[in-house]
Amino acid sequence: MYMIDLPLDPAALTRFAWRHGHGGGRAPLDEDFGYAAHAWLAAALGEQAPRPFRLIENRTGLRLLGYASVGVDRLARRAKDYALPDAFSVCDWPAAASKEMPAVWTSGRRLGFELRASPVVRGERERDAYLVEVERAHAEGREPAGRAEIYGQWLVRQFGRDGAAQATSEAVSLIGFRRVLTLRQSRTGEAGRRRGVERPDALFSGELTVHDPEAFARLLERGIGRHRAFGFGMLLLRPPGPAIR
What we know:
Order of helices and strands: EHHEEHHEEEEHHEEEHE
CATH architecture of the largest domain: 2-Layer Sandwich
Structural class: alpha+beta
Number of domains: 2
Shape: globular
Largest sheet: 5 strands, antiparallel
Strand content: 25-35%
CATH topology of the largest domain: Alpha-Beta Plaits
Distance between the termini: 34 Å
CATH superfamily of the largest domain: Crispr-associated protein, domain 2
Radius of gyration: 19 Å
């Protein structure tokens, strides 16, 4: 698995999205470029597209970080051979970069992380995990737990899937939150129909401990939570802090 770093031109991405009927970019229905990037990746890179991925805006433009099964040289060659010109021009391919990720993780290894995720739970419909807690607390006649606590518990459960990793709510911090209006395919399935959907957009920082190396590798490759095809769920790793003794 490779980490991919693609510098994108926001204006070119917006033009591509509108030209192909995706209504992306800074339109009211796609506040975070998520749908536009999803559509561009499919058009430029097809089955080799990085997923999960994360978009990061900075003063020079837009960066797309993601995990892919091949390195940037093969991605650039695929885009050059098959992408339409307006899709190919979205990325500054000579400035793109990649690195190979570790193939083996060690049980008990501590890792720091940063993660953009959408903390939702599914029942009859998808709902914000915090709003579910508010409704449950109201029904039980108690004060709801705080948003940071509920989201932290949600993330701890995600790490624990298949025994991949362990973390505590105290080791997870909610460092950013907003509600974002994103563009999604209409549930009616009608071609060309899009709808705006509001989602919780949470930025976490913290530390975890690898429990099952193979399951952790799968978690890293798959991503965390829902809407991974639209810019959520990529686990960015960093060195852990000093061990507490």
